[in-house]
Amino acid sequence: MEVTGHMPAQDAPRARSASIWDVARVAGVSQQTVSRVINGKARVSEATRARVLQVIAELGYRPNRLAQALAGGPVRSVTVLTSDTALYGAAATLRGMEEAARTAGFSVGISVLERTSGQADIALRLNRPGEAVMVIAFDDAGVRALRALPADVPVAAAVERRPDDGPDDPWQVWLDDRAAAAHATRYLLGLGHRTVHYVAIPSSTSALPQRTQGWQDALRAAGRPVPEPLPGGWSPRSGYLAVRSLLADRSVTAVLCGNDDLALGVMRAAREAGRDIPGDLSVVGFDDSPPSAYLNPSLTTVRLDFEGLGRACFGLLHRRLDPQNAPAVPAWSEPELIVRESSGPAPA
Amino acid sequence: MEVTGHMPAQDAPRARSASIWDVARVAGVSQQTVSRVINGKARVSEATRARVLQVIAELGYRPNRLAQALAGGPVRSVTVLTSDTALYGAAATLRGMEEAARTAGFSVGISVLERTSGQADIALRLNRPGEAVMVIAFDDAGVRALRALPADVPVAAAVERRPDDGPDDPWQVWLDDRAAAAHATRYLLGLGHRTVHYVAIPSSTSALPQRTQGWQDALRAAGRPVPEPLPGGWSPRSGYLAVRSLLADRSVTAVLCGNDDLALGVMRAAREAGRDIPGDLSVVGFDDSPPSAYLNPSLTTVRLDFEGLGRACFGLLHRRLDPQNAPAVPAWSEPELIVRESSGPAPA
DNA sequence: CTGAAAGCGCTAACAG
DNA sequence: CTGTTAGCGCTTTCAG
Question: Where do the HTH cro/C1-type domain residues begin and end (chains A, B) (predicted)?
Answer without folding.
Answer: 22-59
